[in-house]
Amino acid sequence: MTTIPLDAILGDGTALLNTRTSGEGPTGSLPIDADTLRDAPSGHLFGMTQNAGMGWRAAEVARDPYLIVSTQGGLRAEDGQPVALGLHTGHWELDQMVRTAANTFAAHGGLPFSVACSDPCDGRTQGTVGMFDSLPYRNDAAVVMRRLVRSLPTRRGVLGVATCDKGLPAMMLALAGCGDLPGVVVPGGVTLPARGAEDTAVVQTIGARFAHGLIDLEHAAAMGCRACGSPGGGCQFLGTAATSQVIAEALGIALPHSALAPSGEPVWHAIAHRSALALMQLAAQDTPLSAILSRQAFDNALVVHAAFGGSTNLLLHVPAIAHAAGIERPTVDDWIRANRATPRLVDALPNGPRHHPTVQVFMAGGVPEVMLHLRGMGLLHLDVLTVSGRTLGDNLEWWEHSDARRIARERLRELDGIDPAQVIMGPDAARAAGMSSALVFPRGNLAPDGSVIKATAIDASVVDADDVYRHTGPARVFASERDAIRAIKSRADDAVRAGDIIVLAGCGPAGTGMEETYQLTSALKHLPWGKHVAVITDARFSGVSTGACIGHVGPEALAGGPLGRLRDGDIVRIEIDRRRLEGRLDFLGDDPDAPLAADTAAALLATRELHPAIAAHPRLPADTRLWAALQEASGGTWGGCVYDVDAIVETLRAGRAARQADTRAGAAELQHPTPGGRAE
Question: Which of 289, 336, 360, 599 lies at 20 to 30 Å from 352 by C-alpha?
């Protein structure tokens, strides 16, 4: 780039030649009367002035306001071409949904408002320090969104438009925390797969595959360019973004068959239109979100999550949404019960066996189709209210006989030649296809507070005939994801090898903000020997992660967890029973020929110091350090990483009292020392 002249940066004043110092105000009059002037808050009156000042018709500025909160990002020209890029495709086209909803409100006598709090891309920040802000962002965004909602005091209802890994969970937290208002979530949909290209999960592994000579530079460059078949929408697999859309619908706060719609398509626009109508109906009926977000609704969400085989990250988000709604948070035992009671019914990326992209799950019937099967099994609370204004049972009765269901399933057969019943199966067909429940929560002397693995993502070839994955091997301990991925890519003596167990410790909330470590699991998936390597970490995984990867290990290493005391060569045993949904994660000592009993090994491990390399990352932002402390005081990762204000205040008061007591004791020691320096 050539040097830019100073005048081009500082200006030469010519723009001032046509600059005005006054202008004509809007024509017309505000629709107010004497009682309004006497009794209304000045803010309401000034708000109408602002509405007129922005150009709305003066006679209509007192209409009922409806607020659209979105995670829209980037700036698009009228023809859709980029003016400034967003951080990801998920929020790139949301302006279209916002526009459709706004026009719907206006056409039906409402006054639309729109605000935005955009969101990051977990894929873009993989392997970078940007990941340190990923999970903490969720709480901060929810706070901002709620503040925006409260900043329009006259709003009749809130429409939340969001798509991806953190933006949509934040939106659900925000709306759940505004339970006195009517609210509807509009899932922003998914990206179409590109014909003849790798999907957005596989394409994230081009670096590791190239390093091992599995692909050439030309292939990597081409596939990296072509992965997205449409410019908008969340990723094409059942990761955190897609699972969050499913959960919004399962909770009843999104309309039936709105999750996983293809971004930019006519049905996607129609969802925004119908969601706006639903919100206006809820407002007319004075139905707040608190009437929808019941404990029974959360029970339904856990069951639907199990039937889809959804992302493990929802273990962080569903309890947080419940907390925001004032509902008791689901526990690990609640998740275990849901997974034991519910067969997996959905064949989708990354679980398989056929790995259908999410748009095909939508066309096969999506959430309501899965719920039809769950209804038949008696696993759902059918009397819960939903944002359609009707109960879940009513919604499913409609869906079963609807033209929408018939057309979607026929279209899937017509376009892709796929039988919808091979994408969303009944329980008998699912069992015959070898599909099992997804989540297992291993405990043991390395995970006394628990851990989680998506057991369905373990390569079947390394699972024994009794459906138990067993792996005993030496630990390869890493204190940073960067060092671990370097060892995976390496061909030197430091390389990770088949049979190793990668231990990534110190990457929980206090270490890295509980970063997501997809680049490790994705690299191992696409390396020939990768299925023979397990990963154990106090960090978390992407919803598309596959393999024997165990995350959320608690307590985290930097909170005294035993994972942080392991050393290279220590013997670790993993057992995951995919049929009984049980698992163990144990340290067995440091001699492979003389393994210790789990209790004996635990006592040995307790005598060790923290691994010398494990520490909070030196570039961990102060914002994330604060988040880590606040969420730890609020129940930690297994409590959803929430901000529990009462618990935080109590902790601060106790700390302040303890500090004051220490100060008084120190003062007394100075005033009345005893022989040897001790106070009497």
Answer: 336
Which conformational region is residue 551 in: left (phi greater than 0), alpha (psi within -120 to 50 degrees), or beta? Answer: beta
Closest CA to 185 of 155, 156, 152, 162: 162
CA proximity to 539, closest of 508, 574, 581, 576: 508
Distance CA 196, CA 203 (A): 13
Q: Is the dihedral of CA 304, 309, 310, 315 positive or negative?
A: positive
Which residues lie across from 356 on neighbouring strands? 348
Q: Are 122 and 542 in contact (CB under 8 A)?
A: yes
User: Residue 551: which residues within 8 A CB-CB, separation 6 or more?
Assistant: 312, 451, 452, 453, 517, 535, 537, 538, 539, 540, 541
Q: Residue 622: phi, psi to the nearest 5?
A: -60, -35
**Residues known to be catalytic:** 542
Residue labelled with tokens 């000034």: 46
Q: What is the mean pLDDT for each group of 10 consecutive residues in the chain (680 residues)?
A: 86 91 90 92 92 93 96 93 93 96 98 97 88 95 98 97 96 97 97 82 80 88 84 88 97 98 96 98 98 98 96 95 97 93 92 89 98 98 98 98 98 97 95 85 96 89 95 97 93 93 97 91 85 96 80 94 97 95 96 96 97 96 97 94 96 94 84 59
Half-sphere exposure (CA, 13 Å, Cβ side) for 369? 26
